[in-house]
Amino acid sequence: MTKAYYFSPTGTTKTIVETIARTIDINTEFHNITRPENRTVEPEFTPDDLVIFGVPVYAGRVPNVLKTYLSKIRGGGARGVAIVVYGNRHYDDALLELTDILTSCDITVIAAGAFIGQHSFSEILAKGRPDQEDIAIAKAFAEGIKNTTLKTPVIPSGNRPYRSYYRPKDENGEPVNFKDIKPTKAVNCIQCGHCETLCPVEGICIKCCTCVKECPVGARIFIDPQFVAHKIELEEQFSLRKEPELWKAGKTDEN
Ligand SMILES: Cc1cc2nc3c(=O)[nH]c(=O)nc-3n(C[C@H](O)[C@H](O)[C@H](O)COP(=O)(O)O)c2cc1C
Fold first, then answer.
1. Which of ligand 1's atoms lies nearest the C-alpha of 61?
2. Does the residue 201 lie in any domain?
3. Per residue in 55-114, pLDDT tens?
4. Contact 62, 97 (CB under 8 A)
5. Among 18, 54, 108, 123, which is most buried by a count of CB atoms within 10 Å?
6. Where are the alpha helices (DSSP H) in 55-168?
7. Which domain holds residue 226?
8. Can you give the pTM of this predicted structure?
9. Whose CA is nearest to atom 15 of ligand 1?
């Protein structure tokens, strides 16, 4: 059976995972693990399962908020596909880290991909991605997975040991700490509570921007000057379009 799991506060990872999973198997069982209440049951698989895991890249790594949940997967010898989606800066060690996590849970990762999604912080960086070209690439990648029975593991790009979390620097070259900042509730907030139904954490804000992007009146924004400066820096430095990078076992049933 094909099972797909995704964490996707602003929806880009969801789009890629759904495209890949539906191309492989129209009857895929989907698990949206963005909300904490959907991360309470430990996933368990069998050798007959093909499992797809998709996460966004946060600071060059797998989002910390998922680490405990992912470590509890009981892979049972299933085959897996590891997917990360990043905002056109870089995926750094996130895809390798996700692959290693799945492998350590007894899943053989037979394919892996780093895709690009509109940056969570920005209205312009990688705007509209994944776009039609990305979707076509994701579908072709999935066709290749669908047509293979191989159980050959892949090892995507990245460093071991993993580099530490990507930290933006201030004007003096000192690393900036965004830990305590969170979006404001501006005066035009209508107290509809929609943002609270979407928030993927129960504690410290992880800056995922789901509330910023989904607020019906635009009342949730980051105003911290260093955060805004970082966003502008990303937009300026990483405007050049990047393309998906894919790994899968070389041979398919057709060739
Ligand atoms: C806290 C945080 C850290 C991020 N770090 C990176 C990064 O290191 N590299 C990058 O290219 N994009 C980074 N992004 C952008 C997201 O990876 C990207 O926008 C992704 O498409 C978001 O996925 P989602 O739509 O499923 O939430 C970061 C986003 C957030 C919220």
1. 8
2. yes
3. 999 999 999 999 999 999 999 999 999 999 999 999 999 999 999 999 999 999 999 999
4. yes
5. 54
6. 67-71, 94-104, 132-146
7. 184-235
8. 0.97
9. 87
